[in-house]
């Protein structure tokens, strides 16, 4: 089995289990069936290195999210900015989903829109700089 196909199936199963919040045998069988039956994109292949890098970034983002949440509670963040971030090259739809999840996971940022031209429109909350 191709590593990209394996990661796509794991991603689909993870989303299924997050949505259903049920780890019973019938739900596992339904989730595996759906993950295998959903259409796959064979035209674009992401590298295994890209998948592993995104999973590492998600692991690193967990403590960062807690730190940002505490910062927002302790010090006001009154400045809002819209920025455009470039999508990394060679991104499959699964990797784009994980990128959006990673950006939105932290409390100070949220992806408002994904542009097909290769940009994420990101809303960013930050502390107002003193003048």
Low-pLDDT sequence parts: none
Number of strands: 3
Q: Structural class of the helix and strand makeup? A: alpha+beta
Could you tell me the radius of gyration in angstroms?
A: 18 Å
Describe the structure.
The model has no long low-confidence stretch (mean pLDDT 85). Helix content is 54%, strand content 18%. The protein has helices at residues 3-20, 25-37, 48-74, 93-105; strands spanning 79-86, 109-115, 119-126. It has 131 residues and is of the alpha+beta class. The chain contains 4 helices and 3 strands. Strands 1-3-2 form a 3-stranded antiparallel β-sheet, with helices on one face. The chain folds into 2 domains: 1-40; 45-131, no CATH class. The radius of gyration is 18 Å and the shape is globular. Strand 2 and strand 3 form a beta hairpin.
Entry summary:
With 131 residues, the protein is of the alpha+beta class.
List the helices and strands and how they pair.
Layout: H1 3-20, H2 25-37, H3 48-74, E1 79-86, H4 93-105, E2 109-115, E3 119-126
Antiparallel strand pairs: 1-3, 2-3
Helix pairs in contact: 1-2, 3-4
Could you name the key traits of this structure?
single chain, 131 residues, alpha+beta, 2 domains, 3-stranded antiparallel β-sheet, 3 strands
């Amino acid at each position: 089995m191709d590593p990209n196909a394996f990661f796509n199936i794991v991603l689909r199963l993870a989303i299924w289990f997050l949505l259903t919040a049920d780890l019973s045998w019938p739900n596992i069988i339904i989730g595996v069936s759906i993950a295998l039956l959903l259409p796959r994109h064979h035209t674009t292949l992401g590298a295994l290195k890209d998948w592993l890098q995104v999973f590492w970034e998600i692991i690193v983002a967990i403590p960062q999210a807690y730190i940002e949440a505490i910062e927002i509670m302790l010090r006001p963040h009154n400045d809002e900015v819209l920025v455009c971030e470039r999508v990394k090259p060679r991104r499959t739809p699964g990797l784009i989903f994980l990128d959006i999840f990673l950006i939105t996971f932290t409390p100070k940022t949220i992806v408002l829109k994904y542009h097909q031209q290769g940009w994420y429109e990101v809303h960013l909350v930050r502390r107002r700089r003193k003048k």
